[in-house]
């Protein structure tokens, strides 16, 4: 939504096809320099000269110089400093000595780039840092043959131009480990389309990751001389180099556990208002407007939503969250939800990354992470309770908390088609629910059976109606609610009357009471508020949930909607006092692990054991601990709890971990203090955590 937004619910909404080009025409990159290293101490690929020539040609056409060498003496701190990235082109064996390794590691961790091509994975097996950098080591390969590669990420500069299924011929590596836990996988091999694959259904072939302040990109293609004449492969090499050299940006954090809402199928999606999105090549493209295309199969509470998006020129679009069923009126999302904006030019609180008209993005952080018009970008919208954090290509650019009782971050999600001059495209819209709502938000007026109450039309209510006319002794029942594991109840209410209580029961209106919450006078019959309480003794599976109402007087309150919750989406460790056994140096304090950022980290000394602990400030029943590791991770550790910070009990013992995200659910520990005690490092370095999160009630 921007300055061009027409006022009124009658605004025209037209959505139609936009032709989508395979790659974006962008302004020339600022010139940069690339070192191409092709030393071999093992098998020598005859494609190396063709690879060097291809990279020189790409450089001449795309603003970078190429220095090609097989002399490891180039790996000094002073020499590496002149290059934005280093390409390991079909290197094999041990190619760097200890001093050269130290210089290269310092270069990468300090912000330099690495691009590994094919046999770069057959290099430096005894150097732990290189294994982390490359992502996985070579194990074996069958004969050269044709294969179908499945493009998993079609926003990264190295893969955005590729079809969903890319058929080509090359030598196909099997890897010793799957890099998915520590890298963002961009493409996989379909083992059903060739012979000799040994990794199964998940066989990565191309990936990217961050290492300290540096960037890493690897592609398993590039054995044959013919590869370097392949237009798609040359474009992949260019995209990988541009990413590693910071001329293109991408979200290369490990990504697991997401469910596709759109990746070619529009099942569950609906158009609000006139117009339509075209659906071609797993891409939604818009024209005309102003309208809303929204996912109506489910409402969401506490989640990570990711979407790849592209604008042309000074176009305008956005992602809406937290709105009720809009019917055929897209203005419901405008007036009751929040829009995360996409627009190159406007006021600060109306440009890309802003919560439209509510809060500007961090402009410096946004500009540092943003790809230009015509290129693909990726949003992550992390919604936890009434807080939303906006990540652009993996960088945090906005942090906003809803305090408006007339709005709520719970609800539906949708994408905007803004106007005839605005062309927006979306790919791979996916979501990861964080364990908040058990069975979605229930509109209170949509009862199965009831006594005394009625649905009541009310401005400001989600879906436009509340459960009203509530008197003492009234009740409403809701069939087939998934109650198993629910530990809490939340309701959106409004009262200009005396208020009262909601009792949560199952089985019948006189069944067991699992929880009671007081509903106050909220200030007026148009001022909404949220109330919540813990639940106990909830049965497993599904049940009919009954809300029974008590109080004194008449016209107690209205209920807009409610939800049963499992655990809590509130990070109990957020910005709480944290301490650690050691620090790598003063730049990596324990507090970095509990500040919610995925760019700051705690790092320990290079020894075992090590620990980090957090004081929650009160006693909680801890049900979940989430850890997000940097490249230096714990392969064996214990999650421990304590009432006083002195006496510790082990809640869970972990062995064989491989870094990335460790999300430990199903815990049950009473604690004020929570500690991670590392007993075995996964690398030669220390322990390094981006995030140490604790959840419970």
Essential attributes:
697 residues, nine-stranded mixed beta sheet, disordered N terminus
Architecture overview:
Residues 1-24 form the signal peptide. The chain is mainly β. 9% of the residues lie in helices and 40% in strands. A hairpin with a 2-residue loop joins strand 20 and strand 21. It is globular and about 90 Å long. Mean pLDDT is 90; it is low at 1-26.
Quick summary of this structure?
The protein is mainly β and 697 residues long.
Helix content: under 10%
Radius of gyration: 27 Å
Characterize the quaternary organization of these chains: single chain
The count of strands amounts to 43
The N- to C-terminal Cα distance equals 38 Å
* Structural category: mainly beta
Strand order of the largest sheet: 2-1-3-4-11-10-9-6-7
The gross shape turns out to be globular
InterPro entries: AL/BT2_dom, CBM6, Cellulose-bd_IV, Class_I_gatase-like, FA58C, Galactose-bd-like_sf, ThuA-like, TonB_box_CS
Signal peptide: 1-24
Domain CBM6: 440-565
Keywords: Signal
């Amino acid at each position: 939504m921007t300055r061009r937004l027409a006022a009124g619910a009658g605004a025209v909404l037209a959505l139609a096809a936009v032709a989508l080009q395979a790659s974006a025409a962008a302004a020339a990159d600022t010139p940069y320099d690339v070192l191409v290293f092709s030393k071999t101490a093992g098998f020598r690929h005859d494609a190396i000269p063709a690879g060097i020539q291809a990279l020189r040609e790409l450089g001449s056409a795309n603003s970078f110089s190429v220095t090609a060498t097989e002399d490891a003496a180039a790996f000094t701190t002073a020499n590496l400093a002149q290059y934005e990235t280093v390409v390991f082109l079909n290197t094999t064996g041990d190619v760097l000595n200890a001093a050269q390794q130290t210089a290269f590691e310092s270069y990468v961790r300090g912000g330099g780039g690495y691009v590994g091509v094919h046999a770069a994975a057959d290099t430096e097996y005894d150097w732990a840092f290189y294994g982390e950098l490359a992502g996985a080591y070579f194990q074996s390969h069958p004969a050269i043959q044709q294969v179908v590669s499945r493009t998993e990420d079609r926003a990264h500069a190295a893969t955005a131009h590729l079809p969903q299924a890319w058929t080509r011929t090359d030598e196909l590596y099997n890897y010793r480990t799957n890099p998915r836990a520590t890298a963002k996988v961009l493409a996989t091999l379909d083992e059903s389309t060739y012979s000799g694959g040994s990794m199964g259904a998940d066989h990565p072939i191309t990936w990217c990751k961050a290492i300290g302040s540096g960037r890493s990109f690897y592609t398993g293609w590039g054995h044959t001389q013919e590869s370097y004449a392949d237009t798609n492969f040359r474009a992949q090499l260019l995209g990988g180099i541009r990413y590693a050299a910071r001329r293109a940006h991408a979200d290369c954090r490990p990504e697991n556990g997401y469910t596709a809402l759109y990746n070619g199928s529009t099942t569950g999606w609906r158009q609000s208002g006139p117009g339509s999105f075209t659906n071609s090549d797993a891409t939604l493209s818009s024209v005309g407007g102003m309208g809303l295309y929204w996912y109506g199969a489910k409402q969401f509470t506490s989640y990570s939503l990711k979407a790849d998006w592209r604008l042309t020129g000074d176009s305008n679009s956005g992602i809406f969250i937290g709105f009720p069923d809009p019917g055929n009126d897209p203005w419901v999302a405008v007036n009751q939800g929040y829009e995360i904006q996409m627009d190159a030019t406007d006021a600060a609180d109306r440009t890309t990354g802003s919560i439209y008209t509510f809060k500007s993005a961090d402009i410096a952080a946004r500009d540092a992470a943003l790809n230009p018009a015509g290129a693909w970008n990726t949003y992550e919208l992390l919604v936890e309770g009434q807080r939303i954090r906006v990540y652009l290509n993996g960088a945090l650019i906005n942090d906003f908390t809803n305090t408006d009782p007339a709005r709520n971050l719970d609800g539906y999600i949708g994408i905007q088609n803004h106007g005839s001059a605005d062309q927006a495209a979306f790919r791979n819209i996916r979501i990861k629910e964080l364990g908040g709502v058990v069975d979605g938000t229930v509109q209170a007026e949509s009862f199965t059976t009831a006594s005394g109450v009625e649905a009541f039309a009310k401005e400001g209510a989600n879906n436009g109606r509340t459960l009203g006319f509530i008197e003492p002794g009234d009740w409403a029942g809701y069939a087939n609610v998934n109650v198993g594991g629910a530990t809490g109840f939340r309701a959106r209410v409004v009262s200009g009357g005396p208020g009262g209580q909601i009792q949560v029961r199952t089985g019948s209106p006189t069944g067991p009471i699992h929880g009671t919450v007081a509903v106050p006078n909220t200030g007026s019959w148009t001022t909404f508020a949220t109330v919540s309480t813990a639940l106990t003794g909830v049965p497993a599976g599904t049940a009919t949930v009954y809300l029974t109402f008590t109080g004194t007087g008449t016209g107690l309150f209205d209920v807009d909607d409610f939800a049963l919750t499992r655990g809590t989406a509130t990070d109990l460790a957020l910005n709480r006092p944290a301490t650690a056994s050691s620090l790598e140096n003063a730049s990596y304090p324990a507090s970095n692990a509990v500040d919610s950022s995925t760019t700051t980290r705690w790092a320990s000394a290079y020894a075992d054991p090590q620990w980090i602990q957090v004081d929650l400030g009160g006693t909680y029943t801890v049900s979940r601990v989430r850890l997000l590791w940097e490249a230096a991770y714990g392969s064996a550790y214990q999650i421990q709890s304590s009432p006083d910070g002195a006496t510790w009990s082990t809640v869970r013992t972990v062995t064989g971990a491989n870094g990335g995200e460790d999300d430990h659910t199903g815990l049950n520990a009473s604690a004020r203090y929570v500690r991670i005690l590392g007993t075995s490092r996964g690398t030669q370095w220390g322990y390094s955590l981006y995030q140490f999160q604790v959840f419970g009630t």
